[in-house]
Amino acid sequence: MIKNMKHPNNRRRPTLLFLLCLMIGLCACTRGVREPLSTPRMPTPVSPSPAALPEREILPEIHYTIQAGAFSTSERAAAYADLLQSGGLEAYYFIDGDGFFKVRIDRFKTLEEALQRAIQLQDQSVIEDFFIVHPHPDSVLMDRRLAMRESVVRTAQRFVGTAYRWGGASQRDGFDCSGLTMTVYRLNGLELPRSAREQFNTGTPVGRDALQPGDLVFFATGSSTSRISHVGIYSGRGQFIHAPSRGNTIGSTALSNSYFNSRYKGARRYF
User: Fold this and answer.
1) Assigned superfamily of 140-271
2) Residue 189 near residue 203, CB atoms below 8 Å
3) Which residue among the candidates 63, 134, 136, 230 is catalytic per the annotation?
4) pLDDT confidence of 253, banded at 50, 70, 90?
5) Each residue's pLDDT tens digit, 141-200
């Protein structure tokens, strides 16, 4: 009788064995899926190296220049500038914000160089009174680029109404398109190349929908549809200031103008 009796614990063995197998299986499954279920490691973003980014071409800056003379008429200022040029100086004149025509002479990297040269010219009786000018807009209260944009447009607006003249780059003789842009940039302390094509090949390309005041806009207005032959200064709100053509005066035109819209070739930024 005793031999045929089952021990009470024998009834639990299958259940315990089943639970043990189940736990082992679960552990095995868990080990099998643990790695895929973990959060995958994302590669660390790599910033493009400076060499991979397009370089912004910066125009040479005019750090200091000599300003001599203030005249009520452009004729007197032009005569004075011509006299200085005949003596081997690089002189040009312009109309300032106060309405007077003023002459600037050469350019220098340091204040000391400019001052030394001005005193030398004064001792030689070439000039009388003078100022050493740092031709950059005041940027104490605003970002320098914003200040430069506003200053470039204000400078260009002073020349509105001046006659166009091919090859011209002065208030007296008149301006052609690139002579105007070169002079406006020079008055703001930047050395811009002389021709429209050279100006187009300098600076950073800008999309038409990203234009900012002070950018230069370029056109192919000649017989060739690809050759850059005209340039203007974007002044904002879809307008640009330019010296249009012989017989006309410097003025403002809309980029949407059918003639210029069809000949638009791009824009460049220099600061």
Assistant:
1) endopeptidase domain like (from Nostoc punctiforme) (3.90.1720.10)
2) no
3) 230
4) very high
5) 446 777 889 899 999 998 999 888 877 776 566 679 999 999 999 999 899 999 999 999
Distance CA 269, CA 81 (A): 30
Nearest 5°: the CA angle 81, 83, 89 is 70
Task: Determine which one of 7, 27, 134, 242 is catalytic.
Answer: 242
Residues 65-105 pLDDT 10s: 899 888 888 888 888 988 998 989 989 888 877 778 889 99
Whether 177 is catalytic is yes
Give yes or no: 230 in active site: yes
| Encoded tokens for 11 | 């009834």
Average pLDDT across the chain, whole number: 79
- Determine whether 7 is an active site residue: no
Domain positions in the chain are 57-135, 140-271
Give the CATH H-level superfamily of domain 57-135.
Sporulation related repeat (3.30.70.1070)
Q: Which of 21, 63, 134, 177 is catalytic?
A: 177
Residues 265, 219 contacting (CB under 8 angstroms): yes
In the three-class reduction of DSSP (H, G, I as helix; E, B as strand; rest coil), residue 236 is classed as strand
